TrEMBL record:
It comes from the Bacteria. Keywords: ATP-binding, Kinase, Nucleotide-binding, Serine/threonine-protein kinase, Transferase. The keyword Cell inner membrane does not apply. GO terms for molecular function: ATP binding; protein serine/threonine kinase activity. Residues 8-134 form the Histidine kinase/HSP90-like ATPase domain. This is ATP-binding protein. It comes from Kitasatospora acidiphila. InterPro entries: Anti-sigma-factor_SerPK, HATPase_C_sf, HATPase_dom.
């Protein structure tokens, strides 16, 4: 199982780089060409959400992206370090980080769940975590 990890400052201009790297690693892992646009869009939405949570909460730290090549699945985990701000944004009542827009957050999550068949939204020790996966084509 190979893993590529990215960490970037919570700035919108870094989201494009994360999208490009995710698509390149997904292609190399064996994700079907027809799914690469989904990978790019889903990673872009997840990273943009993480950047937004950092900025809304005035939180420092990095956005984390792990690209994991498993035996039959390609997994992408996008984590933020927004701590309690992630919890507010992911709450069941659709709340957003203070000063944030709950509808923007809900829309971003809806786009991700519409693009990715296997997606989990949760938390880790640092903040929010979105875990997405795609099947890998046998060589």
């Amino acid at each position: 199982m190979a893993t590529v990890e990215l960490r970037f400052s919570a700035l919108p201009e870094h989201v494009r780089t994360a999208r490009l790297v995710a698509a390149a690693v997904a292609r190399r892992a064996g994700v079907d060409e027809s799914a690469l646009d989904e990978v790019r869009l889903a990673v872009g939405e997840a990273c943009s959400r993480a950047v937004g949570l950092h900025q809304q909460g005035g939180v420092g730290g990095a956005v984390r992206v792990a690209l994991i090549d498993q035996e039959k699945r390609f997994v992408i985990e996008v984590g933020d370090g927004a701590g309690e701000h992630s919890e507010l944004a992911a709450s069941a009542d659709g709340g957003a980080a203070e000063g944030g827009d709950a509808s923007d957050d809900a829309l971003g999550l809806a786009v991700i769940t519409g693009l990715v068949e296997d997606v989990e939204v949760g938390r880790d020790d640092d903040g929010g975590l979105i875990r997405m996966s795609w099947p890998i084509n046998p060589a």
